[in-house]
Specification:
The complex is a heterodimer of chains A (160) and B (330). Chain A has 160 residues and is an alpha+beta fold. Chain A has five helices and five strands, in the order ββαβββαααα. Chain B has 13 helices and twelve strands. Chain B is α+β, with helices and mostly antiparallel strands and 330 residues long. The chains are: A alpha+beta (160), B alpha+beta (330). Chain A binds chain B through residues 2, 21-23, 25, 44-47, 49, 52, 58-61, 63-66, 68-69, 130-131, 133-134, 136, and chain B through 1-4, 19, 22-23, 26-27, 29-31, 37-38, 40, 42, 90-94, 96-97, 221-222. Bound molecules: flavin-adenine dinucleotide (FAD), iron/sulfur cluster (SF4) and FE2/S2 (inorganic) cluster (2 copies).
Chain lengths: 160, 330
């Protein structure tokens, strides 16, 4: 019988220490014991991007990431994106442009865009589309998501 | 629930389901397809890095991530189709974690294989529930009983570049030997649980060589191809490796010969279709797609490089071999 391991990492800035099974995924740990259900469980196999979180600043598909591999890591989820002052500009733009319908894909898109705007604030259209290539949306047809992303990018650019 | 081991020595990284980037392994784990302990290669030394190989070639470690491979200037300059394919398959987040070795040794994405409700040849069973099903994903040119196309795009690049792979402890082997001829339906490759894929060795670029990749797919990103091709052309030289059509990564010598002869491709693919072991209504549509895919790459590469001009000086006369005197009986 495999023995559980202790995992220590930070989630949205909070240090966390808990027992995990060796083959448990980061997604299972976030949505299970940590009750952070904002990160969505879509395909479970790396196809859809609904489970995207940031691990040490880089987007990762948490459904195929082993939790034990995140020892010491800095994990950011959709729950850590808004501040007491209000939603992140990406969230506000998604709201403004109705870029979420069922909303299941939205946390993944927001996390991917957070990373893109941090890493490449001046991303052009091709780079934007390429970055979003890991996220599927079955409702919106992507047009509104792209519009919201461009608006959010402009707000990010104005802030920096 | 599977156990996960994290060995720190190459010699310990055996006996179990190896996990490199995990993008294939985790999928199979979630489908209840992995019973063995998982041997995570994360801390195993010596599998990383892209560097020169003796004689001007390139050595690519099995743990190199696809995104790194795609961005590597040496790969882009000398073996561009490999870089393009590594940077174009799957999606950016898969490419950020998936490894070169894992992409070569990944298991088939056949839906019957991945479903826990079936136990086909590739899952250790004795039959193929997909046999006789008319489905465009199936591989019409497969020679064995498994009709699932081989999943690895980068294996096609290795074939097109005549690369070799370093397997520990087996040694340096041809890419064709890594995959076999497809007659054995039970496995996608020949690497055993006691062996480790360490690296691939690309021979030096040929003078005047060009190479390219194209796929026919229903979506530009994050989608598996129906048909894909990698071409490597040089004066008097052609390699055409084709995906989506065989259960092992394979070259199609008939297309290579047609390109070198400047012959049209449609008759070639029509002949292939007529004798395809697993042709069906859906898979027959892939043959014209194959011809168009090859033509698209050739056009993008500016045509088939002209054969080197024949030497303008008269070659020295080679004396006719002397007829050996009949041996007398003794
Ligand atoms: C949406 C999507 C689309 C995709 N499209 C494509 C595509 O078009 N073309 C394509 O080729 N792939 C495609 N893939 C698959 C992807 O490329 C593979 O899953 C990935 O390359 C596997 O690499 P990995 O490091 O994650 O392997 P892992 O999942 O870690 O391992 C895969 C296999 O390789 C074995 N292995 C790995 N390294 C070694 C080693 N050093 N020695 C011995 N055994 C080893 C493991 O035991 C395992 O059986 C796609 C995947 C997704 C999710
Ligand atoms: S096609 Fe191959 S992988 Fe798919 S069910 Fe048949 S034997 Fe299994
Ligand atoms: S749930 Fe992780 S990619 Fe779909
Ligand atoms: S809003 Fe429903 S999947 Fe994107």
């Amino acid at each position: 019988m495999p023995t559980d391991r202790i995992l220590s990492f930070t989630v949205n800035g909070e240090p966390v220490r808990l027992l995990v099974e060796p083959a448990q995924t980061l997604l299972e740990v976030l949505r299970g014991p940590l009750r952070l259900t904002g990160t969505k469980h879509g395909c479970d196999v790396g196809d859809c991007g609904a489970c995207t979180v940031l691990v040490d600043g880089a987007p990762r598909l948490s459904c195929i990431t082993l939790a034990v591999g995140c020892e010491g890591a800095r994990v950011e989820t959709i729950e850590g994106v808004a501040t007491p002052a209000g939603p992140d500009p990406i969230q506000a733009a998604f709201d403004h442009h109705v870029a979420a319908q069922c909303g299941y894909c939205t946390p993944g898109f927001v996390m991917t865009l957070r990373h893109l705007f941090a890493e490449n604030p001046t991303a052009n259209e091709a780079e934007l589309r390429e970055a979003l290539g890991s996220n599927l949306c079955r409702c919106t047809g992507y047009t509104k998501i792209l519009t919201a992303a461009r608006e959010a990018q402009a707000i990010y650019a104005g802030k920096s | 629930m599977s156990d996960v081991r994290h060995p720190t020595l190459r010699a310990q990284a055996i006996w179990g389901e190896r996990r490199a980037g995990g993008t294939d392994v985790m999928d199979r784990l979630h489908h209840g397809r992995i019973a063995a302990p998982i041997v995570d290669l994360r801390d195993v030394p010596g599998l990383d890095g892209v560097g020169p190989a003796p004689g001007g070639g390139l050595r690519v470690g099995s743990a190199v991530r696809l995104a790194e491979l795609a961005a590597d200037e040496r790969v882009r300059a000398g073996w561009p189709a490999l870089a393009d394919a590594a940077g174009g398959l799957a999606n950016p987040q898969i490419r950020n974690v998936a490894t070169f070795g894992g992409s070569l040794l990944q298991r088939t994405r056949c839906a019957w294989f991945r479903s826990p409700d079936f136990r086909c040849y590739k899952a250790g069973g004795t039959g193929c529930p997909a046999a006789g099903v008319d489905h465009p994903w199936h591989a019409p040119l497969s020679t064995g009983p498994c009709v699932a196309p081989h999943p690895s795009t980068l294996a096609l690049a290795l074939l097109a570049f005549d690369a070799k792979v370093e397997i520990e402890p087996r040694g340096l082997i041809e890419v064709a030997a890594l995959y076999g001829d497809g007659m054995a339906a039970g496995a996608e490759h020949t690497v055993t649980e006691e062996e480790l894929l360490v690296a691939a060795i690309l021979p030096p670029p040929r003078p005047g060589a060009v190479s390219g990749w194209f796929r026919v797919a229903s979506r530009g990103r994050a989608e598996w191809p129906l048909v894909e091709v990698i071409l490597h052309l040089a004066p008097g030289f052609a390699r055409v490796a084709v995906g989506g059509m065989h259960s092992v990564p394979a070259r199609v010598p008939e297309l290579e010969a047609a390109l070198l002869a400047g012959a049209p491709l449609d008759p070639v693919v029509a002949t292939l279709a007529a004798s395809a072991p697993h042709a069906s209504t859906s898979t027959r549509t892939k043959f014209p797609q194959l011809a168009r895919a090859v033509e698209i790459v050739v056009a993008r590469l500016g045509g088939v490089p002209a054969a080197l001009p024949a030497p303008s000086f008269a070659p020295p006369a080679v004396p006719a071999p002397a007829t050996p005197a009949p041996r007398g009986r003794r």
